[in-house]
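Lab notebook page, bench 4
Experiment: in silico fold of construct C2
Operator: M.H.
Input chain length: 227 residues
Purpose: comparison with the prior construct
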Amino acid sequence: MSVADRNRLSLVFRLVLLLLLLVLAGGLAYVVLSLPGQAVGLSERVAASMETSGVSNPVTAVLLNFRGYDTLLEMAVLLVALQGVWSLGSAAVHRRVDPEPVLLFLVGVLVPMMMLMAGYLLWAGAAAPGGAFQAGSVLAAAVILLLLASKYLPVRLSGWPLRVVLVLGLGAFVAVGATLLSANGAFLQYPNGLAGGLILFIEAAATLSIGVTLAALFLGGKPGSQQ
């Protein structure tokens, strides 16, 4: 193929891409402009169902009970994103021989506090702002601090134990849903009296998975070569 043909093909590709972007922008603009001036929310329906939700925080009730499918898919999206990053190759080695004393001091002080904060956010999520994603984010930040201080998992833990933790949250979600499906014929429909405990179980598993997944995304590649 000549240079002129390649330039012509590149121009056609850019024009097609521009056309698709314009169509997408037009569709988004139409959706936004067609929204009603005052949308009817679902706050009243959520408030009416709080007694059977198992928690007293409406956000947690929506994410883990009323719209549990959304959170289940979010966990799956995190795993797919991590698989995409791992497909790029192994994580680059950035180990520091002698980490700065200030960094080591901060890690020693902040990491235990962040672990406690993650546990608090997980527990408080049933009645106050918090939950698995907030707790998992704080947990991931603690792990990233350890990574910055050249603290890595032993080789024996970066194989299947790491993968078990990564799928723990999604696995707990699916396991609870499948159990409920076989028991009462409804997926993720918690029975009265058990909703609170099941939600806490799912959130505890999701916290670990979210934290480890976000930290693994920070590495930028498949772990193992940085030991």
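Observations: The two ends are 46 Å apart (CA to CA). Residues 1 and 55 are 65 Å apart (CA to CA).
Next step: discuss at group meeting.
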